[in-house]
Design brief:
The complex is a heterodimer of chains A (458) and B (112). Chain A has one domain: Ammonium transporter fold. Chain A is built from 14 helices and no strands. Chain B contains two helices and six strands; from the N terminus they run E-H-E-E-E-E-H-E. The chains are: A mainly alpha (458), B alpha+beta (112).
Chain lengths: 458, 112
């Protein structure tokens, strides 16, 4: 017997022995295979949630690296705050609106503050509410942190905190309820086609990307971003190593984001992981080639965006497509992101890190790609060969488009109203003086780098 | 006494320092600066948007020496810092009115 198989079996045997010997595990006299599967399911989804949580570090590094040193404290503060306040808001009302009992197809109505369960950590043959909340909360934190990149270097910290609360308490949970929560969109069909979004290209990434777009529009471009001739000026990031380290950390975390969305420990976890890895690599490669041809040099910041684009693109279809489709889907994401970044720069929407392009535009592509490439049943589709290229016709593509439009409109309208209210009340943008000096000292009373740091590269 | 200031390419700093120590110059002060001369800058792109690179990193080196060796110091710096390529830099000499060693209070030639 091969050493590796021996190790797996003895590990499993050891686990079973341990479970059988531990008195307070809550099982009856006999340990059934279903009990073991439930433990594995919950354990895997929990670990996946930990990986997704670490994506917060990835987002923070990417955003800090691609913005200026004078704002580094602020960008990390925004990232830390939206993770913490966002998770608490999701705990208070978000989870209830998304998945809570009671309610309607529009919104959930029970389990606020995780109350209303006899034993919220009990597995009961599936995922416990604790596991589900843990996993979903880190997804909510992901959705909300996307906007901080597009709104970087000019947003009032207080206004951003309010946005984080509303996004995680209400706007995002409603999107989840309509889909993963079994609500409005989940009940729709076009022919045999029902919606599919395995890990959230639309539900999480497009939602974040649209919020980012509305925020960037409400704020306006950074001072000095556009010259008197209207052409965009480069504002280079202050720490490219941070940015690329952030990309790697996000890529790692995505191995929890996508495979964890299987919500079970089974064979599909690995194939989803492979699809994820291939799409990221393809996205990075294609964006390298694209920006090399467009600008004459391989711009590493754009390559980093390409890897992320590949990951966002595969997030929806990862359960329904094969490896070759994954490469194509990721590659197209890498191509789209380059042109999208250039486009938004041209139409005077200043997005310092490309969040709108990576998450919004490519999130739409990833969601629609199911309509083209879906080959397997990802437990959403309920059928094989749903994609256009596999003989499924146009129904799936149409259903994906309907979902994209509904979610995009919901997020655009609600965040548009929210940013308008913030602008009119506490103010959304910092003063010109503060923006020029940098947000760190004036918003936070703290310099990011003291004179101890390295200041030149030569 | 003369103040001799040189703006040189950063990777040439060690060569210049060793050459100056070789002719008996006891100390120097170095700052990291940016600059450009007649050749101007060039254009790069970042995420598709163009920007000008005018200023290039340089090192500014200052020494205060006796009038007697000022010319020799200038020649030493020039030969140690030259690469023959654009951006080698410049050296100039200015007079020093008064010089004091802070630790001991010595003045003038004693303080060099």
């Amino acid at each position: 017997m091969r050493t590796r198989a021996l190790r797996v079996i003895s590990g499993l045997g050891g686990t079973l022995a341990l479970l059988a010997l531990t008195p307070n595990v809550g099982f009856a006299q006999e340990l059934t295979p279903e009990d073991v599967q439930a433990v594995l399911d919950n354990l895997w989804v929990f670990i996946a949630g930990i990986l997704v949580f670490f994506m917060q570090a990835g987002f923070a590094l990417v955003e800090a690296g691609l913005t200026r040193a004078k704002n580094v404290v602020n960008i990390f503060a925004k990232n830390l705050a939206d993770a913490t306040i966002g998770i608490l808001a999701f705990f208070a009302t978000g989870y209830a609106f998304a998945f809570g009992g009671g309610g309607s197809k529009w919104i959930g109505g029970d389990n606020f503050f995780l109350t209303g369960y006899d034993d919220y950590s009990a597995f009961d043959g599936g995922l416990s509410p604790a596991t589900t909340f843990f996993f979903q909360a880190v997804f909510a934190a992901t959705a909300v942190t996307i906007a901080s990149g597009a709104m970087a270097e000019r947003t009032k910290f207080s206004a951003y905190l309010v946005f984080s609360v509303v996004m995680c308490a209400f706007i995002y949970p409603v999107v989840v309820h309509w889909t993963w929560g079994g609500g409005w969109i989940a009940g729709m069909s076009i022919g045999d086609a029902v919606y599919s979004d395995f890990a959230g290209s639309a539900i999480v990434h497009m939602t974040g990307g649209v919020a980012a777009l509305m925020g960037a529009i409400a704020l306006g471009p950074r001072l000095g971003k556009y010259g008197p001739d209207g052409k965009p000026r480069a504002i280079p990031g202050h720490n490219i190593p941070f940015a690329i380290l952030g990309v790697f950390i996000l890529w790692l975390g995505w191995f929890g984001f996508n495979p964890g969305s299987e919500l079970a420990a089974d064979q599909y976890v690995m194939s989803v992981g492979v699809n994820t890895m291939l799409a990221a690599a393809a996205g990075a490669l294609i964006s390298t080639v694209t920006i090399w041809m467009k600008s004459g040099k391989p711009d590493l910041a754009m390559i980093g965006n390409g890897a992320l684009a590949g990951l966002v693109a595969i997030t929806a279809p990862c359960g329904a497509v094969g490896p070759i489709s994954s490469v194509i889907i990721g590659g197209v994401g890498g191509l789209l992101v380059v042109f999208s970044v250039l486009f938004f720069d041209k139409v005077r929407v200043d997005d310092p890190v490309g969040a709108i392009s990576v998450h919004g535009v490519v999130g739409i592509w990833g969601t629609l790609s199911i309509g083209l490439f879906a080959q397997y049943d990802d437990a959403f589709l309920g059928r094989e060969d749903a994609g256009l290229f596999f003989g499924g016709g146009l129904d799936q593509l149409a259903m994906q488009a309907v979902m994209v439009i509904i979610i995009a409109l919901w997020v655009a309208i609600t965040t548009g109203i929210l940013f308008a209210i913030l602008k009119a009340t506490i103010g959304l943008r910092v003063s010109a003086e503060e923006e020029t000096q940098g947000l760190d000292v004036l918003e936070h009373g703290l310099a990011g780098y003291t004179g101890d740091s390295v200041t030149t590269t030569s | 006494m003369k103040l001799i200031t040189a703006v040189i390419k950063p990777f040439k700093l060690d060569d210049v320092k060793d050459a100056l120590k070789g002719i008996g110059v006891a100390g120097m002060t170095v700052t990291e600066v940016r600059g450009f001369g007649r050749q101007g800058g060039h254009t790069e792109t970042y995420r598709g948007a163009e920007y000008q690179i005018d200023f290039v990193p340089k090192v500014s080196l200052s020494v205060v020496v006796d009038d007697a060796i000022a010319d020799q110091v200038v020649d030493t710096i020039v030969s140690a810092a030259a690469t023959g390529k654009i951006g080698d830099g410049k050296v100039w000499v200015s007079p020093v009115d008064r010089l004091v060693r802070i630790r001991t209070g010595e003045e003038g030639a004693q303080a060099v």
